[in-house]
Amino acid sequence: MLLSVVLFLTSTSSVPILGALGRPAQAWFLNQIMRHRPRLAETLHDEGGVKPFTVSTLLNRFGHPHKAGDWLNEGQECCLRMTALNEELSDVLLSSILKKIPKTLTIYKIDFRIDGYTLNPREHPWAGETSFADIAQDSLYAKISRKVRMEFTSPTAFRSNNNDIPLPLPDQVFRSLWQKWNAFCPEPMQLDDRWPGFADDCILVNELTAVNTTRWEFAGGTRGAATGFTGTVGFFLLPKPKARSEWEPYWDGADVVMQSLARFAFYCGVGHHTTIGMGQCRPVPDGKVDSHRKLISKRK
């Protein structure tokens, strides 16, 4: 089970936002797990490698990140988003945390009232629940199977030689997604180890819309800063005749894999620091970037 939970928040005071709040939001999330399953919380905190969750920074009511310098007014509506990528974490969210969710929340000295939550994408476009099998099945019937558009709403970057790579390079994007897919999917659905090389040679960029680099300063006392790209990026799979001969055995079905990974990105995020708000991403159809604003009406 893959989950994307959106918490509906209301600010209870008027305060400035001093930086990205992903780290204190993550701390709150792990504290909720600690209340119900302490060993799991310790494992999530201490173990290295790919983590089975993401946590956003503070979001506006439409699901876009608040940035340093924004001002929250008393009564202003906000959101926080959490995703779970494996059965154990999904179970503790559904069976324990969401059933006993507190009435208030404090993130880096900012107090909020928790008004509720949703997993329903009809109630918020960043909410959802699915499975690896359903993602693959949906991708099999995608209408434009050799193309995907992805909207990166929070800074996205990849780590190499202790440096951030804030560029939407196809090999980096799809290597990140391949790694996370294989870390959590059922074993029979794992992707071939040569997929990153295939993506490097056979997936290209065909759109860059409002793509910019953004530097996130984390709120004071929460360590450092990071730079990443935001915007909408289109990717397409080369026609089979144009692919190098060594990739011909892998080309058939590669469109389904590409579509599946793009859908999975909604839950797992892309790149590094996804557990503290970076790399928030979703696939978008042609001409539909940010059209989901009209769906956010339930709290008016």
What does the average pLDDT come to? 91
* Overall geometry: globular
Distance separating the two termini: 31 Å
Q: Number of helical segments?
A: 8
**Global structural class:** alpha+beta
Number of structural domains: 2
- The sequence of SSEs as H and E is EEHHEEEEHEEEHEEEHHEEHHE
Q: What is the CATH top level name of the largest domain?
A: Alpha Beta
CATH topology label of the largest domain: Alpha-Beta Plaits
The CATH architecture classification of the largest domain is 2-Layer Sandwich
Q: Which parts are unreliable, with pLDDT below 50 for 5 consecutive residues or more? A: 291-295
Q: What helical percentage do the residues reach?
A: 25-40%
Radius of gyration: 19 Å
Largest sheet: 7 strands, antiparallel
Q: Report the β-strand fraction as a percent range.
A: 25-35%
How many runs of DSSP E, i.e. beta strands?
15
Your description of this structure?
The chain has 300 residues and is an alpha+beta fold. It folds into two domains: 2-127, Alpha-Beta Plaits (2-Layer Sandwich), CATH 3.30.70; 132-291, Alpha-Beta Plaits (2-Layer Sandwich). The chain has eight helices and 15 strands. The protein has helices at 22-36, 38-46, 87-97, 132-140, 170-184, 195-202, 248-251, 254-268; strands at 2-11, 15-16, 53-55, 59-60, 71-72, 77-84, 104-107, 110-118, 128-130, 147-156, 158-160, 163-165, 203-217, 225-237, 281-283. The strands form four sheets. Strands 1, 3, 4, 6, 7, 8 and 9 form a seven-stranded antiparallel β-sheet that branches. Strands 13-14-10-15 form a four-stranded antiparallel β-sheet. It has a two-stranded antiparallel ribbon with strand order 2-5. Strand 7 (104-107) and strand 8 form a beta hairpin. Helix 5 (170-184) runs antiparallel to helix 6. The longest helix has 15 residues, at 22-36. Residues 291-295 have low confidence and may be disordered.
